[in-house]
Known about the structure:
Elements lengths: L7 H12 L3 E5 L3 H14 L3 E5 L1 H6 L3 H11 L4 E8 L2 H10 L4 E4 L6 H17 L3 E5 L4 E2 L17 H9 L4 E3 L5 E2 L14 H11 L4 E4 L7 H9 L4 E4 L1 H14 L5 H23 L6
Parallel strand pairs: 1-2, 1-10, 2-3, 3-4, 4-5, 5-7, 6-8, 7-9, 9-10
Protein name: Fructose-bisphosphate aldolase
GO molecular function, one term: zinc ion binding
Pathway: Carbohydrate degradation; glycolysis; D-glyceraldehyde 3-phosphate and glycerone phosphate from D-glucose: step 4/4
Amino acid sequence: xxxxxxxxxxxxxxxxxxxxxxxxxxxxxxxxxxxxxxxxxxxxxxxxxxxxxxxxxxxxxxxxxxxxxxxxxxxxxxxxxxxxxxxxxxxxxxxxxxxxxxxxxxxxxxxxxxxxxxxxxxxxxxxxxxxxxxxxxxxxxxxxxxxxxxxxxxxxxxxxxxxxxxxxxxxxxxxxxxxxxxxxxxxxxxxxxxxxxxxxxxxxxxxxxxxxxxxxxxxxxxxxxxxxxxxxxxxxxxxxxxxxxxxxxxxxxxxxxxxxxxxxxxxxxxxxxxxxxxxxxxxxxxxx
Length: 288
């Protein structure tokens, strides 16, 4: 495991686990979104994990460095995480060249044995660089902007054996498959019973604080469902559309008529406000 005192992501999540609150792990696709997320964290005195997709690293090569600068200069705990890194060579390039705190080594598109083998090797390489490692046990169905679409692959629920196998592979953060999915559930969120909270509770008990739990697939979540996930042990809360849809909607409504500088300024305010709202919901506000 990446040593907690030397790794920002692990430090943030250990504090959340001890305090029984959730931490937003928020995707940013550009500098404006990054700025709004950091401003929200400062305003709410809340930790936050900034997440970038591997595709964004290629599209905007300087964004990771901007995010790392924000992490270093913030007066609240921030970290930089690369989400759903699915290419072994790119993962090695990332950990060798970029100032990241943690990486999701996502080998879930391989069969279980190959997933574990590749994860174990890459976890060791990341830890040698002081970088924490997240992995997906089982397989979470679906796709979203920035990650490979696994919609054609069968979703695989996380089993007790998966939990032990991935902990043995040396990971720091486990992203279980409990009926959650990447992409949209619909305007009402997950259907009743779609998320298997009994499975999440059992996984949390089995882990017994050996690793930390990440929740993927939060699009369309109502606040009460997010709180229930936190209560059952999920503390790293991956959010994409859940926050960014207000930004997207603002741009759709105003891009044709509003001057560019004002559009950017007002858009960041809208996203900051939504991020602050979810920090309150997840009870991370005031914890920094």
